[in-house]
Amino acid sequence: MRKKYLLIFCCLILAVNAFSQEDDDKIIIEPKIETKIKSESKTDSVFWDLSIFVSPDYNYRFFSGNDTNNLSGEYYNSIEIPRIGYCLGFSVGVNISKAVTFQFGVLYQNSGYKTKTLVDSIKDQYNRFMYTVDYHKDLRYHSLNIPLLFKFNLFKVGGTEFKLGLGVSPTLFMGKNTLRVYSDYKTPEISEAERNIDIQGLFCLNVLIPIGNNFFIGIEPTMRYNILGFNTKMKDATIKRNLYSPGLGITLTYRLFSEKMYGYYNKKIYDK
């Protein structure tokens, strides 16, 4: 009888020991699960890309219509040629999901086109021919643009990011000036742009190359197209020109993570 009680007692001790080992195993596993969750949440951090950029542009226009003198587009295409312009500005981008970044900014753009060599006949006060002068016209449009872009992540190679950007840009024309460029001097002609406000369609490819400490160098081929266009005033009232500007943007970007930004402000608050 005593052997029977002793056997039951030993079985109870073994059972209690087994349950205690299971509890110990759970305590060991839980910190690993917590660590995994923290590491995954870091990859989902919100970041802000603060960028400055400059872009040399190839500027020209699409042409449509005829003027009141019935000069065809072939004539204007034969005398008007592209010119090199530029744009510069800054932008702010924020990732709204793992695959998409929304970017907005402000830039100044110098666009337009120019003419081939033209010839003016110089006459005296009696309207008699004296000589000819060669020159060309340089037509420059100055605008303030507000680009609004969605950039989609394509792929990543190492730390280098490849993105595709699509968007629009409200465009405020600040003025237009035409230069008559002679062989030894220039004559400026300041005038108003044919349209005060336009909208650009934007398309770009963006390559961000990390250079350390959350800084990136960016290469950004971009196409800008003025959707509304403008009609030339006075005698060329029926002529419409839509400016376009393919360019190669160079950017310097600093990436600021929200955790770092919040930590900075919390520190400032609690230090007070």
Task: Break the fold down into its secondary structure elements and pairings.
Elements: H1 2-43, E1 47-64, H2 73-79, E2 80-81, E3 83-95, E4 100-115, E5 118-123, E6 129-145, E7 148-157, E8 160-181, E9 186-191, E10 197-212, E11 215-226, E12 230-231, E13 240-257, H3 258-271
Antiparallel strand pairs: 1-3, 1-13, 2-4, 3-4, 4-6, 4-7, 5-6, 6-8, 7-8, 8-9, 8-10, 10-11, 11-13, 12-13
What does the model show?
Mean pLDDT is about 80; it is low at about 20-30 and about 35-45. A hairpin with a 2-residue loop joins strand 10 (about 195-210) and strand 11 (about 215-225). This protein has one domain (about 45-270): Porin, CATH 2.40.160.20. It has helices spanning about 1-45, 75-80, 260-270; strands at about 45-65, 80, 85-95, 100-115, 120-125, 130-145, 150-155, 160-180, 185-190, 195-210, 215-225, 230, 240-255. Strands 1, 2, 3, 4, 5, 6, 7, 8, 9, 10, 11, 12 and 13 form a 13-stranded antiparallel beta sheet that branches. The protein contains three helices and 13 strands; from the N terminus they run H-E-H-E-E-E-E-E-E-E-E-E-E-E-E-H. The longest helix is centred in the first third of the chain and has 42 residues, at about 1-45. The protein is an alpha+beta fold and about 270 residues long.
